[in-house]
Amino acid sequence: GEYDSNFDLYRGFSGEAYKVITVGNICMFSHRQATGNGGEKDVLYYCEGGINGEIKKFKENDLEGWLEKANLLDAYNKDKPKREFKDDVSGFYNKEVSRYIKYIDILNKKK
Fold this sequence. Notes:
The chain is α+β, with helices and mostly antiparallel strands. The protein has helices at 60-69, 73-78, 89-110; strands spanning 10-13, 16-22, 26-34, 40-48, 56-57.
């Protein structure tokens, strides 16, 4: 049907549902969390060792460490997204997340 290629995959962990963003040796997830002012925001998480690993909060430092070990840190730093006048907060955030995913996918293909 019209929705066959348009779905989200979630993984349950510790009673919460995490949206799967990328799968491999390093998996990345997104999870909606309350902001404290009545709103919500997406927070990034990851696990190592495949989809069944322990889910941990994503920190860019973790990614940079993996990239350094794989001799990819310089390329990652050169690929840093640039803020443009047309970018709003979520637009720039999406650029950053796209870069994280790009390099996690590269790492996953190397293993």
